């Protein structure tokens, strides 16, 4: 059986601690092992801070962008291999695997292009110069400068490619060396990516760690940055970690998210906007078996449209074939781990006590192409409630699987926004309407509770990637329950790995510093 090594200090190190077995979640067949300890992490951080930071820092934005372009090219060259690994280790269908792997490559490509546009400057300007003296000669200028620490990336199990690449792209372009830690259970894709990437980047710029997160966090210090994607419980522990508190380590968190979708009363059944709503919600509730941080969990539709919405979504769910994702006819595979399956089943049980079943019961399913009793499967579940604002299991607990609850409301934009707010902060929520006044009222009230609002309408339907697709040009993150962090967003994604500094002096000197001349 393959033993996955960590890539630390410029070498592949197998570790010497206890081992975790990686399995195929559809068949439970063992695929590989990874050691959970026995690594010299102090030396790994020194390697990153030394040659990693020095060599990356010596490059211009354009040169670092060229590095990212090479990494994107490496993904394209190994695309089929990576897809097969994602199917085997992640329980992904081929379509789900492509979504993850192509998303990672596209994000690297986006930031490669941005690096070319930023060119040779060492500092990024933040706003325009400000006159601070009696004349324009004395000026102030805010700039972003490269931080001198290590970027520690702790990624979730569900997107081993995209999650790694989106964090890596921003950090490397900003000039910070990276130590990346994938979730062990689905680490085969991330491990292969680092095998592909390591020869293409400067020494110390990228390291892979497959052990426990606590040991990694014990090494963080001044100037370091930690970016985490995962559960709210782990997020709370990270915020309270001694190293984070003592050294004011910058911490970016993406945690739970009770994303919602709302339909405005102007949307007629069968219209282009209605069809967009049905397609978006059905896809994002079941893609990656609902294991998406951007998946829709809660839906509001006008009271007169409730029956139509439930029937349309029931038809979509009923058409989904669940089973071995290696089969061409399967459209939804298993959950990634046994623990995920058990957590989701427990969440469905809580939700079932407060809602009514429409389709799928509590997730019981007989998957196709799988040995009896094997695999971590939960079928698509559709439920409804007449009291969406008062349903605690719906609004206070994210079920990270293919579970959707649809409820009626009176159609008021303020009430729709209040429903978004009931989730206490989300990564993305969506609203479907062709009525601009309704949209304006909704956005004004809902924007404070969402990192991104997707506004579905007939005019944008033909070009829409759906609310569940994270775009490198737009920020990804959200307030409150969603963690309070931000990633991506074009140049904004670099700022997490840079330090804002106010410069004060001769205006011509400040101009030359920002322009790179």
Description:
The radius of gyration is 24 Å and the shape is globular. The protein is about 40% helix and about 20% strand. With about 525 residues, it is an alpha/beta fold. Helix 15 (about 435-445) links the parallel strand 18 and strand 19 (about 450-455). Helix 3 runs antiparallel to helix 6 (about 190-195). It starts with a strand and ends with a helix. It has 17 helices and 22 strands. It folds into 2 domains: about 1-255 and about 485-515, Aldehyde Dehydrogenase, Chain A, domain 1, CATH 3.40.605; about 260-470, Aldehyde Dehydrogenase, Chain A, domain 2. The mean pLDDT is about 95. The strands form 6 sheets. It has a 7-stranded mixed β-sheet, with helices on both faces.
Strand order of the largest sheet: 15-16-17-14-13-18-19
CATH superfamily of the largest domain: Aldehyde Dehydrogenase, Chain A, domain 1
Can you count the beta strands?
22
Strand content: 15-25%
Could you name the CATH topology of the largest domain?
Aldehyde Dehydrogenase, Chain A, domain 1
Helix content: 25-40%
| Rg over alpha carbons | 24 Å
Q: How many structurally independent domains? A: 2
Helix and strand content put the structural class at alpha/beta
- Give me the number of helical elements: 17
Termini distance? 55 Å
Please give the CATH class of the largest domain: Alpha Beta
Biggest sheet overview:
7 strands, mixed
Q: Unreliable runs, pLDDT <50, ≥5 residues?
A: none
Mean of the pLDDT scores? 95
Q: Please name the CATH architecture of the largest domain.
A: 3-Layer(aba) Sandwich
Shape category: globular
